[in-house]
Amino acid sequence: KNEVEQSPQNLTAQEGEFITINCSYSVGISALHWLQQHPGGGIVSLFMLSSGKKKHGRLIATINIQEKHSSLHITASHPRDSAVYICAVASGSRLTFGEGTQLTVNP
Amino acid sequence: EAEVAQSPRYKITEKSQAVAFWCDPISGHATLYWYRQILGQGPELLVQFQDESVVDDSQLPKDRFSAERLKGVDSTLKIQPAELGDSAMYLCASSGGQSSYEQYFGPGTRLTVT
Questions:
Q1: Which chain A residue has the Cα nearest residue B106?
Q2: Which residues of A are less than 8 Å from B99 in CB distance?
Q3: For every residue of chain A, which 3-state class applies, written as one string?
Q4: CB of A99 within 8 A of CB of B41?
């Protein structure tokens, strides 16, 4: 079993829909990251959080340390949100990555 | 805004050839990471540097891979000889500064071995 599990693996939505991507982990962590990877390959950090909730524009990330679970929500989804979303857990400086969720938002 | 630079962006090489990738981290970042990402999977750490010293290279296939960061700034990852299974995205990241554990990723080098 992977230390970091994401669901779903693939997600297709219509423009405007509310989207949720889930991440569960089995190890102790100091922080959790949500990352976005576009088809060109570069990775952009969306959030780093260790408790509670963070919001940036249409993106919201939550974490429940007791349940070892995090969610990434996208409100009013748009085709430009189409990308791979990766959850990564940090133990000190080391990151362990999930396999990613491929999101496709259709117009 | 400061960015992590990588080159080349794309590389096609034949099996058994040597190939090298270059990474220039964000200025002042002491920690540099090389990751390999196979298509459809998350990145896996190959090597981590703190300044010029290797902190973790436990997942680096040392029979064919080498990495150096001689002056503690930019870094080179080399594969010799390349194998078909090395086809992947090679990502460099750096961390340091005010948010010391947040990693900033470069655009990656996509390697295809034929």
A1: A42
A2: 48
A3: CCCEEEECCEEEEECCCCEEEEEEECCCCCEEEEEEECCCCCEEEEEEECCEEEEECCEEEEEECCCCEEEEEECCCCHHHCEEEEEEEEECCEEEECCCEEEEEEC
A4: yes
Give the model confidence (pLDDT) of A47-90 as tens digits.
999 999 999 999 999 999 999 999 999 999 999 999 999 999 99
B97 touches chain A (CB under 8 A): no
User: What residues have CB less than 8 Å from A72, skipping those under 6 apart?
Assistant: A20, A21, A23, A34, A46, A47, A59, A60, A61, A85, A87
Query: Looking at chain B from residue 37 to 76, which residues have their Cβ under 8 Å from any Cβ of chain A?
Result: 40-45, 48, 55-56
Judge whether B4 and B93 are in contact, CB under 8 Å: yes
Q: To which residue do tokens 């949100």 refer?
A: A81
Q: Which of B103, B104, B109, B111 to mutate to test the interface with A (most CBs of A within 10 A)?
A: B103
Would you call A94 and B40 a contact, using CB atoms and an 8 Å cutoff? no
Residues B94, B103: Cα–Cα separation, whole Å: 5
Rg (CA), chain B: 13
pLDDT 10s digits, B43-98: 999 999 999 999 999 999 999 999 999 888 999 999 999 999 999 999 999 998 66
